């Protein structure tokens, strides 16, 4: 789990204990997730007001998760923001950082092995943490869907493109919300109550993906989220959430686990659909 930021680790702990928290502390938990980018600059009274609780509840929340008080917990969010800025730098800047921190000339084969190791760690984590019930529910959701919409932006766009390609090998009507020409709104507006949106995003969440998720909810469609936190901006309101924590090397996160999960979704769906077809065929129907 070393590939997760401290804030992501905290949010995962919160997610696992969310149902056991008193109502006031649940309010704080939800607020922290929604405002994670702003927590570092907010005063405790502002946070308490946003949660509709007394400031002492914010302190109790921090202590519940092992911090001495609000200030210590806030420092975690501040550090996460600083690291996020570093991660969001240009590719060239990140490569220069690798060079600056390296011990002499780093063999390129060694870099390849580091990425392979990071991907392997991510896959091992996916295997250990996969929620079988959520996965089965996700497949059933897709089986029942009249239309399947898929949205992901920037680094995860390639995953969306792949899963649309794969799903088009079934009889399902599949739509890639590509945003070509800036037309996210136009491409998602026809989604309906019998449809499913597959939304893929990780922090910092793509605003286009979150927009499509909101529209799907408004139109009574189901949302299948592939993300890293059940309490995250995408996972919190999804009908089904499949969690993935990618490995990383040299400040670049892999996509290995995400595409593996998407491939598994496609194969499982195709298997279920084929079983349904076989159930409607009488023995000997196609015999000569």
Automatic annotation (TrEMBL):
CDD domains cross-referenced by the UniProt entry: SIS_RpiR (cd05013)
UniProt feature coiled coil, ranges: none
TM stretches of this protein: none
Domain SIS: 138-283
Stretches assigned to the HTH rpiR-type domain: 8-84
Keywords on record: DNA-binding, Transcription, Transcription regulation
Pfam family, one: SIS
Descriptive protein name: RpiR family transcriptional regulator
Organism from which the protein derives: Dyella acidisoli
């Amino acid at each position: 789990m070393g590939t997760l930021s401290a804030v992501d680790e905290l949010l995962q702990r919160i997610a696992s204990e969310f149902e056991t928290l008193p109502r006031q502390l649940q309010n704080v938990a939800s607020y922290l997730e929604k405002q994670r980018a702003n927590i570092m600059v907010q005063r405790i009274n502002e946070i308490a007001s946003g949660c509709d609780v007394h400031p002492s509840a914010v302190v109790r929340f921090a202590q519940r998760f092992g911090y001495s008080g609000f200030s210590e917990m806030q420092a975690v969010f501040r550090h996460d923001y600083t690291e996020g800025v570093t991660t969001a730098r240009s590719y060239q800047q990140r490569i220069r950082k690798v060079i600056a921190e390296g011990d002499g000339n780093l063999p390129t084969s060694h870099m390849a092995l580091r990425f392979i190791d990071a991907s392997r760690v991510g896959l091992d984590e996916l295997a250990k943490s996969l929620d079988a019930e959520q996965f089965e529910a996700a497949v059933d959701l897709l089986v029942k869907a009249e239309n399947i919409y898929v949205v992901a932006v920037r680094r995860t766009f390639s995953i969306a493109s792949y899963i649309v390609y794969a799903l088009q090998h079934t009889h399902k009507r599949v739509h890639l919300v590509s945003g070509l020409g800036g037309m996210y709104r136009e491409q998602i507006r026809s989604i309906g109550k019998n449809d499913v949106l597959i939304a893929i995003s990780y922090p910092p969440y793509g605003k286009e993906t979150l927009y499509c998720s909101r529209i799907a909810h408004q139109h009574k469609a189901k949302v299948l989220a592939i993300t890293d936190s059940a309490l995250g901006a995408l996972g919190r309101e999804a009908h089904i959430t499949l969690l993935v924590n990618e490995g990383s090397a040299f400040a670049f996160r892999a996509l290995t686990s995400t595409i593996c999960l998407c491939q598994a979704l496609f194969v499982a769906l195709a298997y279920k659909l084929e079983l349904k077809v076989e159930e409607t065929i009488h023995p000997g129907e196609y015999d000569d």
